[in-house]
From TrEMBL:
[4Fe-4S] cluster binds at C17, C20, C25, C42. GO terms for molecular function: 4 iron, 4 sulfur cluster binding; iron ion binding; methyltransferase activity. GO terms for biological process: acetyl-CoA catabolic process. Coiled coil: none annotated. This is Acetyl-CoA decarbonylase/synthase complex subunit gamma. Keywords: 4Fe-4S, Cobalt, Iron, Iron-sulfur, Metal-binding. Pfam families: CdhD, FeS.
Length: 445
């Protein structure tokens, strides 16, 4: 059972030294109880306290790291069920399957396609994280050959999927230094798989049909000395998978049930290509640590990565661009000037439509703490003085021959005040960015 803040406080040095970064030992104890601090933050804690508090102060869902280098994938260590309670920390890993029984040409083509699944959205590059190499051939030598090819040809992290300990051992002789996720442990082979994971220091997935069986297997695997565990509930039923993921999360966070205090991996059932991405998006939201899909087309993967980007963006810290004057195309002193806010989604939407108009233009991103046009206006973060200051800071008067400013149609009410404040002629643009190409072609002279 989890200890209370006062129970933890009794085991701390009580010196209020502030070395942990908190004002008092009691404050540190309260944060330990809420899983918002780690025991290692206190340099003076006794060995006796460490032994008593080690388990109690551990995060409810263990952090598991897969791979090495820049594309290392971290899953787990979440503290809340709902993002508005705090935020989600470690984005769900997206993996794509690659079967070892494909012929050489098909295998290489699919591998290259997976490696190139990168997109840019609101100024941020997004891509998948893992390749799940499947031992569908049942041949250890074939699996090893393919593992070597993938290991040497991708920047992504790897999942090795096989129920054969012989195949797994052989493949890991080639790529153990990449710290892949070993997937294939179950009630029949958990002991041999645990020994392999322990020997190679790699994380291990354990699979079962029920949560009770999963809990039983994790205890056995922990007893064998493996602590980097990922849970996989086997099911082809979408409802069962979602219920299982939710129950695991609740058991770990609300009940502090340690046998299920691990991140999860989920496979999307085969089926309609569109439905597969819809299912994967649902698993990503609740509460898969890794989602494995068969989909490999850009039109499938980009929506899934977009969902992930939205869910794992801190709701209290909007994604924003630098407030400044941006140039779109080959601008000159006669180019139109538009302004919008520095909320990334707003700015890049406007930029895309300005590019579509094929009229070179300046876009002034006004600093509104990363909020959208209407949100900024309603919170008085966007007014005539803010716009005027942004224009002055950007030295528009030195770059533009004319004195015309196109403002968002949603804040047409500001037109007279901006005109009075800046002495520029104000043109009211469309309410929606999609109307900019037609507006600029017909209204800019």
């Amino acid at each position: 059972m989890a200890l209370t803040g006062l129970e933890i406080f009794k085991l701390l040095p009580k010196t209020n030294c502030k070395k942990c970064g908190r004002p008092t030992c009691l404050a540190f104890a309260m944060q330990l109880a809420q899983k918002k601090a780690e025991l290692k933050d206190c340099p003076d804690v006794s060995e006796e306290a460490k032994s008593k508090l080690g388990e109690a102060s551990a995060p409810p869902i263990k952090l598991v790291t897969i791979g090495t280098g820049e594309k290392q994938v971290k899953i787990g260590e979440e503290n809340v069920l709902f993002r508005h309670d705090e935020k989600f920390y470690n984005p769900t890993g997206v993996a794509i399957t690659l079967s070892d029984d494909l012929d050489d040409k098909a295998f290489t083509e699919r591998l290259n396609k997976i490696n190139n699944l990168k997109f840019t959205r609101v100024g941020t590059e997004i891509e998948i994280d893992l390749i799940a190499l499947q031992n569908n051939s049942g041949d250890a030598s074939k699996f090893t050959e393919r593992a070597k090819e993938v290991s040497g040809s991708t920047h992504l992290s790897m999942i090795l999927e096989s129920k054969s300990d012989d195949s797994m051992k052989a493949a890991l002789e080639i790529c153990a230094d990449k710290k892949p996720l070993i997937h294939g442990a179950n009630a029949e082979n958990w002991e041999s798989m645990a020994n392999i994971a322990k020997e190679k220091n790699c994380p291990l997935t354990v699979s079962a049909h029920t949560l009770e069986d999963l809990a039983d297997l994790t205890e056995k695997i922990k007893g064998a000395g493996v602590t980097k565990i990922v849970l996989n509930q086997i099911s082809e039923n979408i409802k069962e998978i979602l219920q299982g993921l939710t129950k695991i999360r609740r058991a770990a966070l609300k009940k502090a049930f340690r046998p299920l205090g691990f991140p999860t991996l989920t496979f999307t059932p085969n089926g309609d290509p569109c439905q597969e991405i819809a299912n994967a998006s649902a698993f990503l939201a609740k509460y898969a640590g890794i989602v494995v899909v068969n989909a490999c087309e850009p039109w499938q993967i980009m929506p899934l990565l977009t969902v992930r980007q939205n869910i794992f963006t801190d709701p209290q810290k909007p994604v924003q661009v630098e407030p400044k004057l941006y140039e779109v195309g080959q601008v000159d002193e006669n180019s139109p000037v538009l302004f919008t806010t520095n909320f990334s989604l707003t700015y890049y939407t406007v930029e895309g439509e300005v590019e579509a108009s094929r009229i070179p233009a300046y876009i002034l991103a006004v600093g509104t703490e990363g909020t959208s046009v209407l949100t900024a206006y309603s919170g008085d973060k966007l007014n005539e003085k803010v716009v005027g200051k942004a224009m002055t800071d950007a030295k528009l008067g030195e770059k533009i021959k004319h004195k015309k400013l196109i403002i968002p149609g949603l804040v047409a009410v500001l037109s007279a005040k901006i005109q009075e404040e800046t002495k520029w002629e104000v043109l009211v643009g469309p309410k929606e960015a999609s109307g900019l190409p037609a507006y600029m072609k017909t209204n800019w002279h």
